[in-house]
Amino acid sequence: MARQFPVPHSIRTASDCHNIEDFRTLAHRRLPFPVFHYIDGAGDDELTRARNTAAYADVDLVPNVLAGVEQIDSSVTVMGRKTNLPLILSPTALQRLFHWQGERAVARVAERHNLWFGISSLSSVSIEEIGANYSGPKMLQYYFHRDRGLNAALVERARAAKFDAITLTVDTIVSGNRERCKRTKFKTPPEFTPASFLSYAMKPAWALNFLFREKFSLPNLDTHVAEGSSSSISIQDYFDKMLDPDMDWKAVEQLRNDWGGTFCLKGVMSVGDAQRAAEIGCDAIMISNHGGRQLDGSRAPFDQLEEIVDAVGDRMEVICDGGVRRGTHVLKALATGAKAASGGRLYLYALAAAGEEGVERAVTILEQEIRRGMRLMGVKTVGELNREMLRKR
Question: How far apart are CA 198 and CA 114, in angstroms?
């Protein structure tokens, strides 16, 4: 749906942003276009990316009134940790490319709000630094590499850093067809070629921070591979070259046993896969299509949520990942049966737009929307949300 208010040109600072779409507008203004389109883009025709958010509009909320809701409790226990909101800041890669504060900014905001957040295997801040400096609940998004030594090292580093969970991403055995990245020739770290120079030079604040602050690297990987740190590569080529397309349920079960702690699968979309995850002892699954960046034409997580909850919700926690832009989206997911909702772009736009200040404001806005929505729905706890409060169009 096209924006009508406010006029996008009036959005110049984080304080001008009143929703996630506003932060997207500001990020577009501040980032070089190859970097923006890496965040914003998706696979093929980007139908699934659009559907991830649009799915929430197909279900209406039916509120109750006169419920005495001055005092409400928006907390929830997810994967063994009590958090202030039923919201998870999904792990995403390369964050210091989007803003020099990167994962550190997101970690600080998550810690202040007592939220789950995650860093990627391809994060631009190390597992050890996050573990040493941030006490909030944290997960490592684990990519299963061809290099078995790297795989083992990631587990041991997460254990030593006292991470609360490993979340294995299972939908990236090959890269999706991200045509925006092909057109802009986005690579990590960025290559400053004659063809790309102008796009970076037009955003001097970003360029100066990238060039003169801490050198960009992928410290969770660079002990084993050069790609992505000292050797520039596209994300599509990285996935196709480095990740193991032979990953199967046996490998998942072995990783779950090797880790021995709280274990989540991210990228489950079918009932059959959800049931298999429950059978091998996963603690949680994230229903996710990688933000529409992998298989275009797949369903939205919210569209799949009800049948997966009905199949396995009594055996494991089900998290609805992707497309969240409003607090009411979180409430709809919880009313359907999700334990929590999660997303990446919902804070990446804000990080790119204004660093830690932007992430803080975005999370605060979502918190206000969730708590306001609870009161307007007539519930005092998130556990009171149920399917009787939903109607499909």
Answer: 41
